[in-house]
Write a structure and sequence with these properties.
homodimer, 275 residues, mainly alpha, 6-phosphogluconate dehydrogenase C-terminal fold, 7 strands
């Protein structure tokens, strides 16, 4: 387990609880490593990512997307025969391409669990974080890579109690630009607009807090994600801007009927995605 | 209690639990009235708003903003001497103005609890909905109206266990345009953008669900609120559009440092409003 923050820490913790005999962790954050060891989320701490990877049956990179790209090449020489490598980055095309360039086409599959938290570090980890969560698994496209994807999906389903869904990396990124990256961008843009209006010390109801919640996410992590998926995200932002402009125009025209119909379209959509 | 939906139902329910001997409710929705009576959230049901108001010490209008305006005139002739009238609409300037025009300047104060739910009807009511919640109370500005505001604030503090905050109606509406109405508009615009992209049947993580949660709110209610506060809301939407455009420009320029700084600004703001 390379990275013991909210995601990596949760995966490691559940794995040890599920009876995996050896879970070796590495993290840049010393305090996260100590805490993970104390809570028995890992059985060992390694001195470097390379040492954590050495001899492991499954190497999971749970670091930001930029660091994930770098680590693929660094761990490759240390992999045991038959080892599978995966990651948890929210954007998958570049990661899968890099894995293939690093000669990992047959032993890598990308992963992206649709769960987590805007909080960071092992303090935000919990062993049941992925129970019943959808986890996208992206094969490299090479024939033997299908085996690796099968292994990664099996890990999420059987050890993590999650629901793996196989999806091609480019399709994943296009989809997530809308379902995840756009909500993040919208929450951040709203928070910035409120901050610049000087509305820091006032009261927010549950609606204002929920709509901006994602803005509290790790800025460096999200800068990485948005840049790796920038074309698809740019299209999604353009659609959002258009949607806002239409609402503003209905308000300007004082068109109560059309305004209610617009809000109804949003309400119908939102009620449809509740689980 | 005129209106026994999520808000009116909750207030009535808490009032009966707190030992108010007589809580007379009226609602247009027959099923809500029956349920409120069965759960002992009200002690009586009235046949009309006028009958519910007759003889009451406190008349609370818990209906959408448009209906609130209409009801002020309808209940006035039925008020007992010394009765206080209040409401719970999310937008206050027009309500307070109408109350004054209807001759209620000395016995009305507007109310707006910063709590609630996107769900509607008595089924969404719960007696502790307003515990510790901020409740804005807007005096009419007439000297005797201060007494009414004092009475309304006392009701929220002592009976509802809420935290009343006195604020002038125009100031309230300007503030809420940003802290509440803009988040609603943003959630709806995002939901419409996703709906039009055809992304109904796909998986959303907790972030996508939270950011769009408000879109499930009652469309007719929100069309009312946004139209009653349209100038202030239009300014807030313009600021949000500008904020989104700046983010899009940073992405277009691939400016990782400036993008992270932008996201950091939003993160700092959001972390600051958590309670």
């Amino acid at each position: 387990m390379i990275g013991l923050g909210a995601i990596g820490g949760s995966v490691a913790w559940r794995a040890t609880q599920a009876g995996i005999a050896r879970v070796v962790g590495w993290t840049r954050e010393r305090a996260d490593g100590i805490e993970a060891l104390k809570r028995e989320a890992v059985t060992d701490l390694a001195e470097s990512p390379e040492r954590a990877a050495r001899g492991a049956a499954l190497v999971l990179l749970a670091v930001p997307p930029g660091a994930t790209l770098d680590l693929l090449g660094r761990v490759r020489p240390w992999l045991a025969p038959g080892a599978i490598v995966t990651d948890v980055a929210s954007v998958k095309r570049e990661v899968v391409e890099r894995a293939c360039r690093e000669g990992l086409a047959e032993r890598f599959a990308g992963g992206h669990p649709l769960a987590g938290t805007h909080a960071t570090g092992f303090a935000a980890a919990r062993p049941d974080m992925f129970a019943k969560a959808v986890v996208y698994v992206c094969p490299t496209g090479s024939p033997a890579g299908g085996q690796a994807a099968h292994g990664v999906a099996g890990f999420w389903r059987e050890v993590m109690d999650a629901q793996p869904v196989l999806i091609e990396a480019a399709t994943h990124d296009e989809l997530l630009a809308w379902t995840s990256h756009l909500p993040q961008v919208v929450a951040s843009a709203l928070a910035v607009a409120l901050a610049e209006r000087g509305l820091r010390g006032v009261s927010y109801g549950p609606g204002g807090r929920d709509t901006t919640r994602l803005a509290a996410s790790d800025p460096a992590l999200w800068a990485d994600i948005l840049l790796q998926n920038r074309d698809a995200v740019a299209s999604a932002i353009a659609a959002m801007s258009g949607s806002l402009s239409r609402l503003a125009a209905l308000l300007e025209r004082r068109d109560a009927t059309a305004l209610a119909a617009y809000l109804e379209q949003g309400a119908n959509f939102r009620r449809g995605i509740d689980r």
